[in-house]
Amino acid sequence: MFFDPLEGLARQDLENLQGVRLRHVVSQSANSPLYARIFEEHGLQADQVQGLDDLPRLPFTGKEDLRASYPGGMLCRPMEEMVRLHASSGTTGAATVVFHTANDIQTWADLVARCFHMVGVRPHDVFQNMSGYGLFTGGLGIHYGAERLGCLTIPAGAGNSKRQIKLLRDFRVTVIHIIPSYALHLATVFDSLGVNLEDLHLKTALIGAEPHSEQIRKRIEELYGVKAYNSYGLSEMNGPGVAFECPEQNGMHIWEDAFLAEIIDPVTLEPVPEGEVGELVLTTLTREGMPILRYRTRDLTRFIPGECPCGRTHRRIDRILGRSDDMIIIKGVNIFPMQVERVLMAIPEVGQNYLIVLERQGYLDQFKVQVEVKSEFFVEDMRVLKKLQDRITGMLRDELLITPKVELVEARSLPCSDGKAQRVCDLRGQ
Amino acid sequence: MFFDPLEGLARQDLENLQGVRLRHVVSQSANSPLYARIFEEHGLQADQVQGLDDLPRLPFTGKEDLRASYPGGMLCRPMEEMVRLHASSGTTGAATVVFHTANDIQTWADLVARCFHMVGVRPHDVFQNMSGYGLFTGGLGIHYGAERLGCLTIPAGAGNSKRQIKLLRDFRVTVIHIIPSYALHLATVFDSLGVNLEDLHLKTALIGAEPHSEQIRKRIEELYGVKAYNSYGLSEMNGPGVAFECPEQNGMHIWEDAFLAEIIDPVTLEPVPEGEVGELVLTTLTREGMPILRYRTRDLTRFIPGECPCGRTHRRIDRILGRSDDMIIIKGVNIFPMQVERVLMAIPEVGQNYLIVLERQGYLDQFKVQVEVKSEFFVEDMRVLKKLQDRITGMLRDELLITPKVELVEARSLPCSDGKAQRVCDLRGQ
Ligand SMILES: [Zn+2]
Ligand SMILES: [Zn+2]
C-alpha cells in the first residue's frame, strides 16, 4: 500500500525512531568544524542529546551558519566520501552549498520516490520533468526519485515551451513536474500549437518550488485536466522530498523519519501551540555527509491537527504562508505582508497595488496601508469611498488583530520598480 | 589496472564476445517494428546472423530510419520497461529519440566511468561537469559516469562563466568536462576575475561534443595546465562513452565490447582498407531497449593501425575528420571541405575565407576553389600572385588527388551570411 512501510509507522514508534536517529546525527555532527565550534560555544556535549526530549538543548542553525562555513565547514565526514554538491545560485558572496554522500543521494531518491508513489504514480507512468537540471535541486532531485520508482523519465528541463508540449503529446506523458507560474504560462502556448487537452494523456501534476494559493492549484487542475499535488523542499534539506501532499490534498506529509520538524515563534523561538502558524525548523535525521540541526527555514506554516484519512502517520504542514524574514512586528503583533495581500485581493474594488507604511509618532508605531482603488470605483462621492475605506479597515483588523490606518489612492499611483511592487515601507528608523 | 577487465581482453576473445553479442542483439532487434519490417524487406531471418562473419548481411540503419520510426518504432521491449528518453533538440520535424532501460542506463554509466578511469580520474577527484543537463546526453551521460566512479560531482551545467570559475576555485576542482570552444572562451574570463592557474587545482580536462584539432587540444592544455583527452559519442549510441583517448593521447579506444565498429566507404558502402579514412558505422552490442544495427554515423575517421602501448585491446579511432554528408563527389573522387580547409589554413598568405565552387562545363565537372588572400599579400605584381596560385594548386592536388582551378580573391570578398562562411557552392544542377 505504501512505498515505504515507514509511512504508516505507529506514531510512538516513529517518535522512538526519531529519538534514536537524533542521537546519532548529533554525535555525527560534532565531527564537523561548524558544530564542533557551536557545541563548544554552548558548552554542549553531543552525548547530552539522548532523545527528542533533549532537542531544546540544541542551538538553531541559520543560513548565516551555512554561509560562514563555506565551502566545506559543515562536513562531518572526509570530502572524499562526498559524491554530489548542490549550491544556491548567486555569483557574489558565499553560496549555500550542500554536499551528499552516495547514501545521501540514495536516501534522497527514496524520499522523492515515496512522494511520487503516494499520489499514484507508478513505474508504467511517463514522467516529464520541467525543472532546470544542474546545481538547482529541483531537476536532479526529482529526476532521481522518478528513476528510483521506475518511471520513464523525460529530462526536459526548464523552458522551450513548444518542445515541452510536443514531448507531452508525442510520448503520451501522464505525469509532469512543473513550477506553478510556468504551468500557467505553458497553458497559453497550447492554443498556438493547435494542441488540445484531448491530445494529451496527463493525469497528475507535481507542483512546487514556489508558494502558490489554492486558487492557482485549482486553475492548473482545470487547465491540464489533472490532479495537482503540492511539493515542499529546500536545498538545505536536499531539495524536493521534504513534504508532499497525499491524495487528500489537505496539507503536505512531512517525512518525519528523515526530518525532525518543529514550528516556532520566530521572535521568542519557542514552539507555537499545535495548529498555529510559525516558522518551520528542520533537523536532518538521516543525512550522513552534512547533517543540519534545527535549521530555521524562514518558511511560515502550521501543523494541520488530527490524523489524515490516508493512514500515513507523518504530520502534515499547511501550504507555505510566507517568510518569517518578511515579518513586521508592530505594537507587539507579528504581521506578514502576505496576510494583508490575501485580505485586499479578495475585495473587488481594490486595484493591483498596495503599500504597507510603518511610521513612528512620538513613541507609538503607526501601521498604515495605502490601497489602490480601481479607477471605475474611484468616484467623486466621498461617502462611497468612506464606506469602502471602513470596510477594508474592518477586514484587515479581523485578520491582523490590530486596526490599521487605511488610505485609498488612485490606481497606478503607488511606487513600483522593475515591474515589482514595493510592499513595505518602514519609516520608523532604528 | 583497468576499470573493467574487458578493456584488456585478448583480441580473439573480444571478437568472440562480439560475435555472441551480435547474434543476441540481432535476434532482439527483430522484436522492434522497424527492424521487423527491414528484415522482412531484405528477406532476412534474425537467425541467419550467427556471428561477426554474417555482419555484411545486415542492412545499414540511417538517421532517416530513426526519424521514420518516431516516436517508439525502434523499441524491442515494452515501453513500460523504459526509464529514460533522450532526444535531439529540434522543435520542428521529428526528433531523433533514444530510449533506455534501467540496465541500459547502468551499462552507459559503466562505459563512461571506464573513460574517466582510463585517464587517471579516481573517486577522490572533484569533477565539474560543464555540459548542459537535460535531454542533451552530454550532461546526464557524463554525470552518471562520474557518479559510478565515485567522484564528487558538481553538476554545473553550461554557461555562467563567473560561477564556473568560482566553483573551480572554491571546491578545488581537479577534473572538468568541457566543450573545446567553451574552454577557449572560459579562459578569457579568468583574468577579469583576477583568478590565476595557481589558484586552481586542475589536472585533467575531458573535451568532446564537437570536432577540434590537435592545436586546440594543446591550447587548452596550456591555458588550464592540464592534460586534455578527446571524447567521442553520439546520442544515437547513448551519447558520451563510445570512444575515449587513453593516456597515450593517440587515438580514441572504441569500447568494442559495447559497440561493433566498421569504417566504410560512404559511396561503395564497402569496408575501407585498415588505416584509411571512411565513415564510422556502429552497432550497439549491449543495449536492451533500443538496439541499433550498423548505424551510419556520417562521422569520418580511420582505425589507427597497431597495438596501443597502454595495453588495451580495443581499437582506436582517429579524431573526427569531418562528416560524410559534406562529401563532394567530383570526377569520381570523394572530397571533403575539411581537407581543403586543412591545406589552405596552413598557408600564411591565405585569408579567412574560401569557397569551393562546382560547375559543369558540357559534360565535365569543374572543381574550382576561390581563396581569399590577406591584404598585405594581395599585391599588384601579377607574377607574385601567379606563384602563390601555383603553390596552392599544387598543395591541394597533393591532398585531393585531383587538380583544382584556384582563383585568388581579395580579403573579405567572399559570401558570408550570419557570420558563418559558405564553404561549398554547387552550380552543377541535377
Ligand atoms: Zn494523507
Ligand atoms: Zn591506449
UniProtKB/TrEMBL annotation, chains A, B:
Task: Cite a single GO BP annotation.
Answer: phenylacetate catabolic process
Short name of one Pfam family: AMP-binding
Catalysed reaction, written as an equation: 2-phenylacetate + ATP + CoA = phenylacetyl-CoA + AMP + diphosphate
Q: In which pathway does it act?
A: Aromatic compound metabolism; phenylacetate degradation
Q: Where is the AMP-dependent synthetase/ligase domain?
A: 85-282
Q: Which InterPro entries match?
A: Adenylate-forming_Reductase, AMP-bd_C_sf, AMP-dep_Lig_C, AMP-dep_synth/lig_dom, ANL_N_sf, PA_CoA_ligase
What's one GO MF term for it?
A: phenylacetate-CoA ligase activity
Keywords, in A-Z order:
Ligase, Nucleotide-binding, Phosphopantetheine, Phosphoprotein
Q: Where is the AMP-dependent ligase C-terminal domain?
A: 332-428
Q: What is this protein called?
A: Phenylacetate-coenzyme A ligase
Q: Which organism is it from?
A: Desulfonatronum thiosulfatophilum
